Amino acid sequence: MKIVLAYKMTHDWSVQELLTEYQKLLQRAIDKIWENATWKEKKVKHRYSIGNGKYKYYETTRLIPYFPKSNEFRRGLRNELLEDWPLAKHYVDSAIKTAYSILESWRQNYLRGRRKRKKPVVKRKFVRVKTTLMKVEGSKIRVTVKPREEYLELDYSNEWFYERIKDWKVGELIIREKDVYLTFSREVEFSERIRIGIDSNLMSLDVYHPEQGWIKVDLSELHRIAETYDGIIDKLKSIQKKAPKRIGMLLKKYHTRRRNRIEDYLNKLAVQLSMEFPDAVFVFEDLNKFNMFNGNGRKFNRKLSRSTWSKIVQKLSYRVPIEFVNPAHTSSTCPRCGSRLESRNGLVECSNCGFNADRQFVGAFNVFVRGLRVALSGGEAGDLLPDEPGGELRLMSPKSVVRVDLNGRMFIHISP
Asked: What's the whole-model pTM score?
């Protein structure tokens, strides 16, 4: 498995001409691919909820775009873009690759109804630099702009992230007007790693580690951030008609601030989780929020919409190995005998064998068991918890409640 990390550092290069020329090149590539796209009619199924877990289905006919990807077309496109191109030829290859990436992203959003049938336009200035345009010696990188004429040089040995990636392989760069994004990769083997089960809840991630036990990761601060900004945004929307332009600017400001605060929290959470469990395979439930909205009330649905489970998994996947298991009945199946558990005030109890425990602990433990490819059907008790006498499950409190330290780089452990 390959792990890829990206870091940003500032530069003092004069790259305005390079950025402008690359922007024009990239737009030309998009224009040419768009002109040769094939649009085909296709019947698409849609649905909307009518309550009680039932849906109404209907069909529509849509025009679906298919972009040319043959080697012959790509070769012709490359030759056309190379005409009058003043810089290194490999920038043309980079622009073609980026153009296809932009168009595929647009296509996915178009199919989901988020984009109109309108060609993408490149507004931001950046340059994607392939490894064939770079010469790497230790921490020093030399980027070719014009062969044997113009080069850009940088040294990241004094950057804060150097110790983390000093032995990693340097990947593609993205140059912007005032900074540059560096990517580093490393191949990692995970065959002997331990598995930990993670139960995703509204206000916490409950982790079961076979050696450390139950650890609760508190996400209440994440929900407080989202709830605070949602309250501000709702109030602004209620008075938007009075001053549409001014309120529109404020809405944009607070939407951006909300997104940035949440992204910052999630990035720090992912880093600290990967540092807390460096040698583990993270086992998550394969959750679908869409199926949870029905019949739970508006207040619960609003809280559910603020959950960021998929984003947490996405950000963790760049740092640690991730596996998914079926989420069905993980919090309501007895891990001792496999019977259905009854829930009372956050605790669950088995009427068959008398087992009782915290609901979230049971969820995390059952996810862990499924990660071991063991069915939740009541195996031998001695095989369930090898770290406890007789393998008996008992009512327990979390080993520690963990909160994300927004100023530092490690978890804060608080005794429950």
From this structure: 0.55
